[in-house]
Specification:
oxidoreductase activity; DmsE family decaheme c-type cytochrome; mainly alpha; Decahaem_cyt-c_DmsE
């Protein structure tokens, strides 16, 4: 009997002691978002008020950090009562539990990712994030996205490319070449071709192949044709540079040199067409006759193929 009483007393002591242990961890600020706004207002060095004009502040959305049953700022930053506490003059303010800026030291990439994926994992466009090229390179969500601003540059066609160029510097150079996709003009942006959160295609492309991605805009090049051009059906990048070129139409090399890289000793005539006195071929190139280079219903891709 005494052993049973001793055992029950020990269990009771553990149950009573459990809340004390739980209280040792980080705590949520009882003031909620109001405690944050006290310092991070519109005039602060790190203002956050602009977030109220974004989808993250739509209180009617149950997934919003500011929805009725969520914790506002601490939905993303974690329990951070210590960060918002009143400090003595000699005390150093600790960082939030999950910190997204460098002022007080960035939290590990894994913690920052988890804060976002807690809500966004259910969305299809981030389903392949785990194991993607950006995830493996330790790129976190907030490396690209800006939350405490009314206009996230990653969601703005005119601003998105500049954010990508901060890492992809070679693509910035290519986009300023004579021939380029209309990115500077705001008509095309990186995510029109690339699925930045993960993809089944190469180089994070939106399509399963390079050609499938290109055909999403250039459908007229898909065919079918009676006579396919093998380099085209294999890969558009056999002839084109995707991000920019100093040759017309994003070509790797200007015609006829591009054509001669394959057709130098093949075909029905000498590719040099060195015919003195025959003005028909003077100052001409391959595409003056073989204009349907992406495929044709004429065996040589000549204009008059009907």
């Amino acid at each position: 009997m005494m052993k049973k009483l001793s055992l029950m007393a020990a269990v009771g002591w553990l149950l009573l002691a459990q809340p004390a242990f739980a209280d040792d961890g980080p705590k949520y600020d009882p003031r909620g978002t109001k405690g944050c706004m006290k310092c991070h207002d519109v005039d602060a060095e790190k203002p956050i008020m602009a977030i109220q004009h974004t989808v993250h502040a739509v209180i009617a959305d149950a997934d919003s950090p500011f929805a009725k049953n969520n914790r506002g700022c601490e939905s993303c930053h974690g329990p951070s009562a210590g960060h918002g506490a009143n400090l003595q003059d000699d005390e150093v303010r600790p960082a939030p539990a999950v910190n997204f800026n460098t002022t007080l030291g960035l939290s590990p990439v894994k913690d920052r990712e988890e804060a976002c994926l807690n809500c966004h994992q259910k969305q299809g466009h981030v389903a392949q994030w785990q194991g993607s090229a950006h995830e493996q390179a330790d790129v976190s969500c907030t490396s690209c996205h800006e939350l405490h601003t009314q206009n996230d540059p990653m969601l703005d066609k005119k601003l998105q490319a500049e954010k990508c160029y901060s890492c992809h510097t070679n693509e910035r150079i290519d986009s300023n070449r004579a021939s380029h996709h209309p990115m500077k003009e705001g008509l095309v942006t990186c995510t029109d071709c690339h699925q930045v959160h993960g993809s089944n295609g190469p180089s994070l492309l939106t399509g399963f192949t390079v050609n499938e991605t290109c055909y999403s805009c250039h459908a007229e090049k898909r065919g079918p044709f009676l006579w396919e051009h093998e380099p085209v059906t294999e890969n558009c990048l056999n002839c084109h540079l995707a991000h920019g070129s100093n040759n017309m139409r994003l070509l790797k090399v200007r015609s006829p040199y591009l054509c001669q890289s394959c057709h130098m000793q093949k075909g029905g005539h000498d590719s040099a067409l060195n015919l003195p006195g025959d003005s028909k071929f003077d100052q001409k190139g391959c595409v003056n006759c073989h204009s349907s280079v992406h495929g044709s219903n004429h065996p040589s891709g000549i204009k008059r193929h009907r």
